[in-house]
Specification:
The structure is a single chain. This protein has 13 helices and 11 strands. The strands form 2 sheets. It has a 6-stranded mixed β-sheet with strand order 9-1-10-3-6-11. It has a 5-stranded mixed β-sheet with strand order 5-4-7-2-8. Helix 10 crosses helix 12. The radius of gyration is 22 Å and the shape is elongated. Helix content is 45%, strand content 19%.
Length: 322
């Protein structure tokens, strides 16, 4: 498929999603969550509850079909009644069976939870582009695909057909992508940055061109033509949407690609410079250090040290959390 900005960025971030479990509750209940270490997303399958975040802002009411994406590293409380004394998440998880946690009496409420994992070196690209919490109302038009995904996840859990685990993982990642899509479709919901560029119908084709051919010597008139604008209008519109000019964005994109290549495969700096359109290794190294704050040789050296020092260490399985 042709290059597309959101997909390009998720690939750059090496984004993966995992379904982490379900919570079933009834009666009066309240759970306090520690600050999440990863991006969390929840889909409300049945019932309603309140979410209170650690900054003591207004509580958010969640109802059937609602979906929530949380990037804020702050403690949270999920409750049927905010006046009920909370129990810790650890206490709830200690009685988990088959990745399902239960609290209270009955089954009035159910949510399915997942996490999104990103390359740590690029997390700021997503965190800086999004608000701390994204709440998609289940009744909104943008939520229709999310409702379908929640239904499919329930079917996978109930039927346990061959490949259910793999199917659920793919559905969890599709859910994460659709939350981002739904957020992009809401007018005025995104501040200046690459995510706003990706949602701008006139500028998205320009991003696709730069992403497809990052090493090309792009000129402003050529990019303006792709957007169907005059050079001056294009430059102003792009900077208003991105926070930087077109060529500044191109430089930052090139350096992100370079950083990933250096981290993943220890790419030759000279060949990397040539592939990204730089006339010399020194010109590339200067641009890389200006954008990232480090010389490319140090990034490659650090990553090599981490790789060789890691050996064949095994990691213990994590407890599933809603």
């Amino acid at each position: 498929m042709p290059s597309e900005p959101l997909s390009d960025m998720l690939k750059l971030l090496d984004a993966k999603s995992v379904l982490t479990g379900a919570l079933i509750a009834g009666g009066a209940w309240s759970i306090c969550f520690p600050p999440p270490e990863k991006i969390k997303f929840w889909g409300i399958v049945k019932g309603c509850c309140w979410l209170q975040t650690g900054d003591e802002g207004a509580p958010i009411k969640l109802q059937t079909g609602d979906v929530l994406l949380m990037l804020r590293p702050a403690p949270m409380m999920l409750a049927s009644d905010l006046g009920v004394a909370s129990v810790s998440l650890g206490e709830v998880l200690s009685q988990q069976i088959d990745e399902v946690s239960r609290i209270g009496d009955g089954e009035d409420f159910m949510l399915i939870g997942g996490t999104a994992v990103l390359d740590p070196s690029g997390r700021s690209l997503l965190f800086d582009a999004l608000p701390p919490i994204i709440h998609i109302d289940g009744g909104a038009p943008q939520a229709e695909p999310l409702r379908w995904i929640l239904d499919q996840l329930i079917r996978e859990r109930a039927n346990r057909l061959p490949g259910a685990g793999a199917a659920s993982t793919q559905l969890a990642h599709l859910m994460f992508i659709h939350i981002l899509r739904a957020h992009l479709q809401r007018q005025g919901s995104t501040g200046p940055g690459w995510l706003r560029l990706a949602s701008d119908r006139r500028l998205a084709p320009v991003l696709a061109l730069m992403h497809e051919q990052p090493g090309k010597d792009w000129r402003l008139p050529e990019l303006a033509k792709a957007a169907g604008m005059s050079r001056a209008t294009f430059a102003l519109h792009f900077k208003a949407a991105a926070g930087v000019g077109p060529l500044g964005y191109l430089t930052e994109w090139r350096m992100r690609l370079a950083e990933r290549a250096l981290r993943q495969n220890g790419a030759s700096i000279a060949k990397l410079a040539e592939s990204l359109g730089y006339a010399s290794e020194s010109a590339f190294s200067h641009a890389f250090k200006r954008v990232t704050g480090r010389a490319p040789k140090w990034v490659r050296r650090e990553e090599g040290s981490l790789y060789h020092g890691a050996g064949r260490a095994l990691t213990a399985p994590c407890a599933f959390t809603p």
